[in-house]
Predict the structure of Probable phosphoketolase.
Amino acid sequence: MWNPATHRTDNRSENEVSMAKDHHTALDAHWRAANYLAAGQIYLLANPLLTEPLRPEHIKPRLLGHWGTSPGLNLVHTHLNRLIKERDLEALCVWGPGHGGPAVLANSWIEGSYTETYPDVTRDAEGMARLFRQFSFPGGVPSHVAPETPGSIHEGGELGYSLAHAYGAAFDNPDLLVACVIGDGEAETGPLAASWHSGKFLDPVHDGAVLPILHLNGYKIANPTLLSRIPESELDALLRGYGHEPLHVSGDDPRAVHRDLAAALDRAVDRITEVQREARSSGTRGARPAWPVIVLRTPKGWTGPKSVDGDPVEGTWRAHQVPLAGVRDNPEHLRQLEDWLRSYRPEELFDADGRPTPEVLSCVPEGDRRLGATPHANGGLLTRTLPLRPLENFAVAVDKPGTALHEPTRVLGKMLAKVMADTAERRDFRVMGADETESNRLGALYTATGKAWQAETLPTDEHLAPDGRVMEVLSEHLCQGWLEGYLLTGRHGLFSSYEAFVHIVDSMVNQHIKWLKTSRALPWRAPVPSLNYLLTSHVWRQDHNGFSHQDPGFVDHVLNKSPEAVRVYLPPDANTLLSVAEHALLSRDYVNVIVAGKQPCFDWLTLEQARAHCARGAGVWEWAGTDDGLRDPDVVLACAGDVPTQEVLAAAALLREHLPELTVRVVNVVDIARMLPREEHPHGMADFEYDALFTRDKPVIFAYHGYPWLIHRLAYRRAGHAHLHVRGYKEAGTTTTPFDMVVRNDLDRYRLVMDVIDRVPDLSVRATALRQLMADHRTRHHAWIREHGTDLPEVADWSWPY
C-alpha cells in the first residue's frame, strides 16, 4: 500500500507482492545487462564477453565517459520498458543527465533499435565489441545522449532544458506519455527551475502527459547537489508548491528499489490516466490536477567499485566519470575492473553468441513501442506540411512605393491567425512568446485560438483558454525549450520575441543548431520543421523602454554557427515579411531568424516584387536610385532592415534633389548571408555576383540594422571591401524620438549624405555647401526634439517623393 505520510511503498498488498515476484528477476536481469554494457563502453576495446581473463590490451588507451549516472538511467529505462509493455503505452523518454550516453546506448542495443538504425552494430558479440569500441572513440559516438542516439530528442551536454523539451513534446500529443529523467545537477539550473511550472500549461484533453523523474544520486562532478541535501520534507513541499504530487523511491537494495519504483510508476500512470479520462469524457476541465512526479534516490555509481585505493567511490562524487582510471598500468585496478564487470554475471545475461537472453528481453516492448524506436523521437517522420493560404489574401496594396504605411507584424499576424485556424483540428502549430504576442502586433491570433492557461482566471483576463495554442510565459527559456520539443517531435511553430531579450536563449539555440547540423548527416533522421524566430520591438523603436531594450546582436550570434543550418532575414516592409515568413514556415532543419518592426513602416514593394526580391536575397531597387545599369554608379547606397532602408531611401532622395548629376545605386539586402562568399554559406554570393551588385572599386555606404562590424566581417574577403563603409547601431541608445535614435548612431539620412560626399572622389570639394547643410539639419534636429519632444516635421512627415 502507498503511505502518503512517508510517500513510500510499504505494507504491500497481495497484488504488489505478486508483481514483485513475477518481475523482479527479469527486471534485475535487464538492469544488470544494461549496467554491464554501460561499463563496457567506457573501458573495453576487446574481449566484450570476458571469455578470457582481462588483460591490459583489452582496455581502451583513453578512458572517457561517465559512469556515475548510468546505473540510475538504466534502472529507469528498465522499468519504463516494463510499464510500456504491460500497458501498451505510446511513450518517449527525455534523458536529462548530461553524460548518460552509455546507459541509453546500452538499452537501445539490448532492445534492438540500435542495430536496426546501425546494422553494422549487430546484436551479438561482434556487435557488442563495436558498441564498446565506438564509444568516445575517434570516428565513434559522443558520451552524451545525442542526435546519433536512437530515441533521443535531447542533447545532454548542456543542462537545464530536459523538462521544457518534454512538455514541448507532450503538447498536442494526446496519446503520448513523455517520461523525463532530470539529474539533480541539472535541477539546480534556472531553466529547469522554471520548467516545473509547465504543468500549468498542460491541457489534459488535447495534450499528452509528462512524468518527471527527479533522479537524486547526490553529486555533480565534484560537489554535492542541493536537492539531494535538503530535507525530504522540504523537497516534497517544493514540488507540491510547483503543483505536483511527489512519489518518493529510495535505497541501495536492488530488490526493494525494483519493487518500489515499479509501484510508483504504476501509481503515477494510474493518476495520469484518471486525470485524462475525466477531462476527456466530460469535455470539461475541473480544478487543475496535481500531476505526479517521481523522486528517485539511488547511489551515484551504484553497483560499481565501492572504493578505489582506499577512497570511497560508490555513492560519492568520485563515481562521476571513470572510477578506475589506471587500469592499463595498475594490475590492482585491472583486477578490480574485472571483478566489477563479472559481478553482473554476463554469462547469465548473454548467450554464447553474445545475444541478450530471453529473460533480459522479457520486459522489453516490441516495434515502435520501444523507446529507441518511437517515431516521436524522429519527428520528421510524423511532420505534415503546414496549410498556408496564398499570400495574396494578406498582402498590402502598393500603388506607389514609400507613401502608405503598415505595421508589418500586424499584417503577418493575420496570416498566422489563418494558419492557426486551419490547424485547429490537427493541432500542430503553436506560437510562443514571453508575454509579447499582443505587444508585437500579433493579436490577430486570438481570433483563432486563446493563450494556453490552466491556472486561475479572473473576469478582467482576456484570451485565456485551457486549449489555447498561443503560449506566453515570462521565461524565454521555457518558450525556447517548449518549441524545440514541439518541433523535434514533428510539429510547427514560431517564437516571437523582443529583439534585445532573445539573447537569453543564446546558449539554447547553440545546442539546437548543433543538433540540426549533426542530424543532417544522419540519413535515418527525417528533416524536422525549422525553428523560426520573429524578432521585433527592435533596437530602433524602443519608445517606451530605451537603452535596456536595445541590442540587435542575436543576428551576429547566429551567423557564427553552422552555415548549413542558419538563415537570417531582414525584410524591409510588410510584403517582404510575408514572403520570408512563408518560406521559413515551410522550411525544414533550419534556424530562421526574421527581424521585422512592429511600428508603422513604409510599403516599398508589391507582393510580386517582394517575392522576387526575397528569392534573390539582395538586389538593386532601380526605381530608388539614378543608376541606369549601363555603367558603374558613382556610389552604392546599401541597406538591410526596415529603419535603415527608410534612411537610405531618404538619403537617395536628398542626393537626387541636391546632386542630380551623381549616379546612385540603391541595393537592399533581405538575406544577410548573401554577403558571405558562396563557399562559406549556401546562400552566399560568388565574387562575380557580389562585384556586379556592389562594384569592385566604388564607395559603398551600407546602412545596417545591427552592429556595423558584422557586415565588415561577412564581406572582408571581397575585392571592394576597402571601399565599404557601414553604419549601424553603436550602443548609443536611450528613450528618445525615433529619428533621434538613428542620429545618435550616425545612421540618419543626413549623415549618410555626408558619408557619400566624404567618399566619392572630388565630391568633398564640389559639395561642401551640401555637406554643411546636412550637418546643420542634424544640429537643428537636436534643438527641435528638446523643445518639442517630436521629430522635425520634414522627417516625421516624409514620404518617397518620386
User: Anything to note?
Assistant: The chain has 27 helices and 24 strands. The two ends are 83 Å apart (CA to CA). The chain has three domains: 26-377, 391-601, 617-796.
